Amino acid sequence: TLSHRHLFVPATDPGRPPLLLLHGTGGDESDLVPLGRAVAPGAALLSPRGAVLEQGRPRFFRRLAEGVFDEADVERRAHDLADFIDEAQARYGLAAPVALGFSNGANIAAALLWLRPEVLAGAVLLRPMVPLARPPSGRLEGRPVLILSGSADPIVPAENAARLAERLTEAGAALTHRTLPAGHGPTQRDLDLTTEWLAAH
Ligand code: MLT
What we know:
By secondary structure, the protein is α/β, with parallel strands linked by helices. It is 33% helix and 23% strand. The strands form 3 sheets. The chain has a 7-stranded mixed beta sheet, with helices on both faces. It has a two-stranded antiparallel ribbon with strand order 4-5.
């Protein structure tokens, strides 16, 4: 068995890269499957459950408070998740996936880009934050990354999202950052932009 509880949906359109679905706090591996199907019809979907529990709610790493991360745990969990992606690629015969993460899932996807960028072909980050204080350790070699922020997001300060975009660009990502008139939750516009971006990358 693989190291993370997960859900796998095989591709029906082998031309599309697999999507790695990463849920928000309190979600699970089935949460983002409808979203994945909607934004990337026919793509294989690999959807792990966050291995950390916060008062019974699954997450991908520990935090000290909302928006204040346990950085040692972020690093450890990012490496565990990267190892799971390697295992799942071998098990299911997958190409490197594009991550699609929301909130806490977007933050662990950002941590993967920081620490183990080779496991991802690209990433869509919905309402992410800077995952680690130190700059990314790897080079992103032109990997495409879409960041969608909300101008009225009560959890993610605009300055933090801008700093994330800057760090990833400095590390070599081909970055698109859009700020939508939205709060923390994803909107129809997020879905539309994600669908367009995935079709183009
Ligand atoms: C996090 O802990 O990753 C962020 O605060 C987002 C969240 O999960 O609410």
